[in-house]
Amino acid sequence: MNHRFVTRLSFLIGLCLPIVTSLVTPSSTGVAGEAIGARPNILWFIVDDMSANFSCYGERLIETPHVDQLAMEGTRFTNAFVTAPVCSPCRSALITGMYQTSIGSHHHRSGRGPLKIQLPDGIVPVPELLKRAGYYTCIGSGLEESDRRGKKGRDTAMGKTDYNFEWDAKMYDANDWSGKRADQPFFMQVQLAGGKLRGGTDATAIKLLERAKAELGNSTDPASVSLPPYYPRDEVLLRDWAAYLDSVRFTDKHVGSVIARLTQEGLLENTLVIFMTDHGISHARGKQFLYNEGTHVPLVVRGPGIAKGQVRKDLVEHIDLAAISLAAAGVSIPASMQSSNVLDSSYQPREAVFAARDRCDETVERLRSVRTDRFLYIRNFYPQRPHLQPNAYKDGKSIVKTLRSLHESGKLDPLAEKLMFSPTRAPEELYAWTEDPWQVNNLASLPSHKSILESMRAKLDQWMVDTQDKGPESEAMYDSDMKEYLGKGNPEVEKNIAMMKKWALEGK
Fold it and tell me: Quick check: pTM over 0.90?
């Protein structure tokens, strides 16, 4: 019998049986520490630039047996969202269990210049809290003979951190748990390149497709790819998405190798394993933006005390990994921490989750959102600016170059023009996101949705007050951070910085 068919069939059988009784209610067993004997090891998989394109989340063009297996043996969250759709703010929030807007780390790659960012008093990164509790803390690839990109060879590098605040490198003991004492639990962050494996150009996408043929036996056919409705079926975009799906397959393979290592070393059954990505796919409406494409992520938890095969549909935030992990380790969750232990037996599901996007590299932006179980509200603080503001990082990608070229030649359809190339934006956006998964129908101006709009607007306002949203950065801070970009031989960056300052003076 076909092995792939058996794998898919066994996954579906294992996944479907518990769904009826476990759609929303959190597990009564929980991970609060009391259900676990010896303190568990804690291992996070954190993957770059990847949405929930895994078989267990409904992706049908590829198979991801190892992440699927984690889902069968643990709990899968279908509505997990990041609080920031770009690496450094997301990771700053994750490692502290705090909204990045509350701790002043919400501007991408900030604090790199002369002016530094210090965490507020009392805010301590999770690795430091676990280290104080006796854990061996490490961050790397999770494999002793392979790096975060799956390349063979002894890996001695520390894994990706990308925090927007000053921190002590000593909070990590090593890049791997192999150096721990025999009786010592470990906290490991496995940092994987994920969607970055495909690079940013058509040439690098083609190269990854070739690597997939060589290492995985085949590559994803670009012609079979389904794109969101606002992206044209251009060959460059199709190849990019196919390479992206192969990056998901490489990620799944790496996950399987780490799980096999844990099993071989007799560690798996006493290890809390959490799989998550740091934001959605890097694309024109994905990474850096607050739509599903940028903020919806996979989240799977497996380990001691975790319900097997459970599916949770309640709204959770990526910062919740902090509280889940501290509780599993028997470490008190700081009262100031905004993270929630969503696996605790007394946990009450959230009514809403929140997200924010601010400056990314040289490009000034300010977006805020609130999401309930049906509606997504987004506020654009700079509505006089286009969706695709000039940004050297994104404009250097072949997919964005292609979109701009098609726009300039008048070859994009009206939906793509409206959503990506309108010179201005609506100040408010409202979507029935469960019915409109790609967020293409803005309901904010409809009289029939006035009361919902007002309710969502009020929720966001209250959250910004309650969490002490730090808002725009000062001109001095912007200038400080831009010193890391200027003089690097990139005239596009310098031109964009001048544009940002010009628009600010014009009140845009």
Answer: yes
